[in-house]
UniProtKB/TrEMBL annotation:
Designated name of the protein: Uncharacterized protein
Record InterPro entries: DUF1657, Ferritin-like
Pfam families per the UniProt record, alphabetical: DUF1657
Length: 69
């Protein structure tokens, strides 16, 4: 497996976790749990952004993606 494929999987997993935390936050009546899941969602949004940035960098700088001139 390539680094690019690994990053794609990591982005997908982080997005899934983000959705799960948002669902938990919306569905709980416990205010402290709601706040905890909101904070976890915010953290995961940052993780997704960082992973996407790294994926973009790797994709752009992957020698296999460059044409031979």
């Amino acid at each position: 497996m390539t680094v690019q494929a690994d990053l794609e999987k990591a982005v997908a997993a982080a997005q899934s976790a983000l959705g799960t935390y948002e669902t938990f936050s919306a569905s709980t009546l416990d205010d402290s749990a709601k706040q905890m899941f909101k904070e976890m969602s915010s953290d995961m949004e940052r993780h997704v952004a960082l992973l996407r940035g790294r994926l973009a960098y790797v994709t752009q700088n992957n020698s296999m993606n460059k044409s031979l001139s």
